[in-house]
Amino acid sequence: MSEETIDGTNGCSKVRTGTQNEAALLALMEKTGYNMVQENGQRKFGGPPPGWEGPPPPRGCEVFVGKIPRDMYEDELVPVFERAGKIYEFRLMMEFSGENRGYAFVMYTTKEEAQLAIRILNNYEIRPGKFIGVCVSLDNCRLFIGAIPKEKKKEEILDEMKKVTEGVVDVIVYPSATDKTKNRGFAFVEYESHRAAAMARRKLIPGTFQLWGHTIQVDWADPEKEVDEETMQRVKVLYVRNLMISTTEETIKAEFNKFKPGSVERVKKLRDYAFVHFFNREDAVAAMSVMNGKCIDGASIEVTLAKPVNKENTWRQHLNGQISPNSENLIVFANKEESHPKILGKPPALPARLNGQHSPSPPEIERCTYPFFPGTKLTPISMYSLKSNHFNSAVMHLDYYCNKNNWAPPEYYLYSTTSQDGKVLLVYKIIIPAIANGSQSYFMPDKLCTTLEDAKELAAQFTLLHLECKGQYSSGWSHRSIQQIFYQKPLTCWLKRPTY
Fold first, then answer.
1. Which residues form the RRM domain (predicted)?
2. In a domain, 377, yes or no
3. What residues make up the domain containing 47?
4. Burial class for 421, CB neighbours closer than 10 Å (0-12, 13-18, 19+)
5. CA quadruple 24, 27, 29, 31: dihedral sign
6. Are residues 406 and 464 in the same domain?
């Protein structure tokens, strides 16, 4: 512990010695009954707290705290975070010098307490002019494994991963959209803890590790975003995956209507997944129980409740690049679909639907904003030096993809017509010079839009889809919830405008 630290309680700035600092921490331990131990660059307060029985709190109970003053310690921090609820464990990251590293993790006993901490303590002024940031923290226990032989079954992959790594709980394998007897060339491996996943990643990450004679690709899976239970209780849309590509929306609607005729409002499908909208939640829940595992056109389907998105907050996130919690009464079900998970590098998304038609829907990116202080040093950078997950539109993804393949930029040609009611309708034709002499000279969607932006995005998304179908573009995705990628992308402006 450092010889001198600053005691900033109540805004004071008096020097306190290392002995005084230790005394303050001992007083905190005596007052609360919690133990404190320092190991591996972090100091743990609690975990478990006194009198705790049973397993640790579930996922979603921990928050991340950033921008902590380096000379602030548990005796000041714990009382602040106790305002939100009972602390299970407080982990403060420490330097060798005895100062903290500016961030910590606080685990509460319930998810509700963690959410309350985010609401009341994010941007909290912990000292005069010093504001902390608080957001949800999810221990990632899942790895993405790419370049797996497509003929391997789930059981084979599970057995092999258990042989080469420890703590494997399960593997998630998705069947190919075109051949249900094969996998998609990747899998997600679930471990018993974050530590087990981290140790497995460390062992597999060098790139020289092989499974079945193949050099595999390894990365962290993107954690699924949590949707609060109250919001999920209002969901009346089902997410259906593992459909045959040839299965139509009409067939899906007919199958889901069998248990109660007229209960399905509409169906939106793309490739081998769909969203089934019901008039009533009770019918949706009943249909989920009945239809999960059933066969449609020879394919065994998986059915779950779709995750909703907050219309206002998600659109604000889209504009401001920040994460916003779901609101209570502004839920909208945008018609978004599944994408294929990435191999590595997060290339562009595949289409969702735009009012029943193809619409651009890039992957949801977990974002946050940071204050831009005067005097901050800025470095010029090319967009092409970034990774594809920095882009949030199909147009940017297509441009980025062409550049990465050393192709000339895509060329956009605008056309228009007039609808029967006198509206000007727009569509773009895209030519990619590098492949214009190949099997397809141009790409043009079969739907018209009422705005220039929608028309351009739709054309870019249409092009990306067809490049993938022709094998010239790999849709590889990072393993976040496939459903979520398309179901949680903001389409606020598009929902109000029809295509023709």
1. 61-139, 141-223, 236-308
2. no
3. 27-136
4. exposed
5. negative
6. yes
- CATH number of residue 275's parent domain: 3.30.70.330
* Among 466, 459, 464, CA closest to 440: 466
352, pLDDT greater than 50: no
| Beta carbons of 340 and 373 less than 8 angstroms apart | no
Beta-strand pair 214-215/130-137: unpaired
Residues in the chain: 500
The structure tokens listed for 63 are 């928050």
Please check whether residue 186 is in contact with residue 171, taking contact to mean a CB–CB distance below 8 angstroms.
no
Q: Is residue 445 domain-shared with residue 402, that is, in the same domain?
A: yes
Q: Are residues 146 and 86 in the same domain?
A: no
Stretch among 276-280, 394-398, 483-487 having the lowest mean pLDDT: 483-487
Burial of 117 by CB count in 10 Å (0-12 exposed, 13-18 middle, 19+ buried)?
buried
Place of tokens 């226990």: 141
The chain-wide mean pLDDT, for the chain, equals 76
| Euclidean distance between CA atoms 359 and 447, whole angstroms | 10
Give the pLDDT score at 353.
Answer: 35
- Residue after which a domain boundary falls, among 195, 220, 245: 220
User: Residue 326: what residue type?
Assistant: N
| Each residue's pLDDT tens digit, 419-456 | 777 889 999 999 988 777 655 678 898 888 889 998 99
Residues 6+ apart with CB under 8 A from 423: 450, 500
- Mean of the pLDDT values across residues 186-202? 88
Same domain, 125 and 34: yes
What number of other Cβ atoms are within 10 A of residue 245's Cβ?
Answer: 12
**Res. 63 pLDDT band, cuts 50 70 90:** very high
What pTM did the predictor assign? 0.48
Whether the CB-CB separation of 234 and 329 falls below 8 Å is answered with no
Q: In whole angstroms, what is the distance from residue 161 CA to residue 155 CA?
A: 10
| Region class of 120: left (phi > 0), else alpha (psi between -120 and 50), else beta | alpha
480 domain residue, yes or no: no
Mean pLDDT of 328-353: 34
Q: What is the mean pLDDT of residues 298-318?
A: 66
